[in-house]
Design brief:
This protein is of the alpha+beta class. 28% of the residues lie in helices and 11% in strands. The model has no long low-confidence stretch (mean pLDDT 87). Bound molecules: zinc ion (4 copies). One zinc ion is lined by residues 24, 26-27, 29, 43-44, 60.
């Protein structure tokens, strides 16, 4: 039997270096990754790690899809680039617009975020960061966590008589 002249397969020279594995664009991990629908960036496929109702913000994928204008813009089907989208700009109060556009869950951040007056607690004047601080909104008022707690206690006492 004539032996076929089996050409040894020459491995095509790989241009990829070992360090070229796709990484999560947010935290840099190389584990299980998925591409975002909105912007096609690699991100940790970690939504399953999220514990329901824990309000933990430790999932890259969840954070990007919940807390960025990029994902909002995509989900709402707006045209063009989120960074100069008027619909996105009008959808949120300025502070939240800026936070959504500049927080650490963004691959690209707003270059020239509009300025805004900081939100202050209506009771004690403490500056409340709407994106990250706990607060209670009551009508036009914002209460910091401490004042909210005091207020809740007052109401609780009042209902008890
Ligand atoms: Zn995106
Ligand atoms: Zn990640
Ligand atoms: Zn938009
Ligand atoms: Zn307060």
């Amino acid at each position: 039997m004539a032996k076929r002249n089996a050409q040894p397969k020459i491995a095509s020279p790989s241009k990829r270096k070992a360090g070229d594995r796709p990484r999560c664009g947010l935290c840099g991990k190389t584990g299980r990754l998925i591409k975002t629908d909105c912007c096609g960036n690699w991100i940790c496929d970690d939504e399953h790690k999220y514990v329901l109702f824990s309000y933990a913000r430790n999932s890259c994928h969840r954070n990007h899809s919940r807390y960025t204008l990029c994902a909002y813009h995509h989900n709402e089907g707006h045209a063009g680039d989120w960074k100069n989208c008027g619909e996105c700009r009008n959808a949120f109060e300025t502070e939240m617009y800026v936070w959504y556009g500049t927080n650490e869950s963004n691959f690209e951040k707003l270059q020239n975020p509009p300025s805004y007056e900081p939100t202050k607690c209506s009771k004690c004047g403490l500056i409340i960061k709407l994106g990250t601080d706990g607060f209670t909104q009551s009508g036009d008022e914002y209460w910091c966590e401490e004042c909210s707690a005091k207020e809740m206690e007052k109401r609780f006492r009042r209902t008890k008589g």
